[in-house]
Amino acid sequence: MAAWVVVFVAGWLLIGLPTDPLYAFFWLWAATVAWRSHLPWRQHLVFARDWLPVVLLLVVYNISRGFADDYFDPHVTELIHADEWMFGWATGGQIPTIWLQQHLYHPDVRWYDVLASFVYFSHFVAALAAAVVLWMKSRPRWAAFMRRWFALSLAGLITYFVYPAAPPWWASVEGYLPVEVLRISNRGWQEFGLHGAGNSLNLLQLASNPVAAMPSLHTAFALFVVLFFLPSVKRRWWPLLLAYPLAMTFTLVYTGEHYVLDVLVGWAYVVGVFLLVGAGERWWAARRARLAGPTGPGPEAGGPHTAPPVDPTTGPGGPSGAPTDPGGPTQVPGEPGGRPSGAPHTGMADTGTGGKDPAGTPRPRSAPEQDGARLGTDDRTEAGQRPR
């Protein structure tokens, strides 16, 4: 693993930060190999098999995104007016991006410029890194994560086609804003001599789309990752996790990449995706259960216990990870000795001595008692009489 870290840092300095999804995927795969170097190579090739569809989807997404601005003129003024309407009372009638740059931007790089650049960069690796960890730990949760990831990407891509929207820096360049807005998302990297590797498809101008601002998938994926893991994390850590999408929001608005409206729409997309995909998963699980048919008597009839359904976003045991099935037989209230639920009644009062008298010697059953035990009835007959 130490060798991977050394090579990764060298790649940062020579090639650039992995802002290209294919480049980031290569480094994440190399990280799994380094972390599990004791495994045979066949096991490492399983990663490539499982992730090949994801990589192909990333390529298709990037290429399609590059054509999304070829059909409709970009929307500009309505986004500006929306931010002015929501925040003009606090910013002197200006959009939040202009207000933030007027109060925070300086010719020399400040510490928050560096922090903003690395928060912006985290978008390119956070979701993929979380998916890789899930792939190694729990394949069902990885599948649930990727279903939501794909649905969110598809929703954003469709929106780019039907509603191309220009970001603040583009509106400033085209003269839609009265004050210059600078695009400074990579300013903090340059202070350290770093640069982004860019998108390999951009070299051919295939994925370049400057008017894909609505919704903001940067902040959408930041919230997506947090919401997916939030139910399985103790509540005292929630403020720290929720600080990440808030930091991404500040970064995008301050650096001129997005309006606040873009961020709010991105958050709405995340909530919608979780609701729709979650409903689809529950429907599919119910359908499979119906097709499977009855598998035997349920627990109340003495049959095998059926485990409760598992939420794929939290794993077995619910949010806290505690098992939901206490195990063992349940006790019937009010009966001495605690007869397990579903066990047939023997027709004898259980004294808790296992069919023995108080002295501990076995007590033989009479014929009526044996008949009652075989018939499974609680009706008592007189000694020597046969039940009707």
Describe this structure in words.
With 388 residues, the chain is mainly α. It is built from 14 helices and no strands. The protein has helices at residues 2-14, 21-35, 41-67, 77-91, 96-104, 111-122, 126-137, 139-162, 168-173, 187-191, 217-229, 238-254, 260-292, 367-375. α2 (21-35) packs parallel to α7, α11 runs antiparallel to α12 (238-254) and α11 (217-229) crosses α13 (260-292). The termini are far apart. Mean pLDDT is 75; it is low at 197-206, 298-306, 319-356 and 367-388.
Quick summary of this structure?
This protein is mainly alpha-helical and 388 residues long. 54% of the residues lie in helices and 0% in strands. The longest helix has 33 residues, at 260-292.
Structural class: mainly alpha
Helix % is: 40-55%
Mean pLDDT, as a whole number? 75
What is the strand content?
Answer: under 5%
Main sheet specs:
none
The first-to-last residue Cα distance is 79 Å
Q: C-alpha Rg, in Å?
A: 31 Å
Number of contiguous helices: 14
Jot down its keywords:
388 residues, mainly alpha, 14 helices, globular, disordered C terminus
Layout of strands and helices, then pairs:
Layout: H1 2-14, H2 21-35, H3 41-67, H4 77-91, H5 96-104, H6 111-122, H7 126-137, H8 139-162, H9 168-173, H10 187-191, H11 217-229, H12 238-254, H13 260-292, H14 367-375
Helix pairs in contact: 1-2, 2-3, 2-7, 3-8, 6-12, 7-8, 8-11, 8-13, 11-12, 11-13
